[in-house]
Amino acid sequence: MKGNTISEFINDLYACGGPEKEFTHNGKRYFLETIMVEGTDLLELYVVEIKDDTDDVVFSFTGKTLHDCVSHFEEAKIFDGKTIYQVEQEIEVLFG
After folding, report:
1. β-bridge pairing 21-25 and 91-95
2. pTM of the entire predicted model
């Protein structure tokens, strides 16, 4: 991983749900953010693929804790059928 280590990337998510992160993998740009779901005590962690004409949600999980959200993200096979750990050498963090 360029711009962060995988430990820094994941620790940021566990520590505070962010910061927001923008990164690339395999020629695709992604944006990751954790938000409070309005009117609830729930958190949503989501990842969108940024495209010229639209943003496609590639991952979304709503849970009661950051741990729930991040652990589901860690297990998600959203990068060409692989987890972030399987492709971390191919990721470049642009900000966050």
Report:
1. antiparallel
2. 0.92
Per-residue pLDDT tens digits of the chain, which is 96 residues long:
999 999 999 999 998 766 799 999 999 999 999 999 999 999 999 999 999 888 999 999 999 999 999 999 999 999 999 999 999 999 999 998
Burial class (CB within 10 angstroms; exposed 0-12, middle 13-18, buried 19+) of 23: buried
Assign 77 to helix, strand or coil.
coil
Total residues found in the chain within this entry:
96
Please identify which residue in the block is written with the tokens 């990164």. 23
> SS3 for 64?
coil
Cα–Cα distance for residue pair 91/2, rounded to 1 Å: 6
Q: CA-CA distance, 69 to 50, in Å (whole number)?
A: 21
Amino acid at the residue 39: G
Report how far Cα 8 is from the mean position of its chain's Cα atoms: 13
CA atoms of 70 and 40, how far apart (whole Å): 19
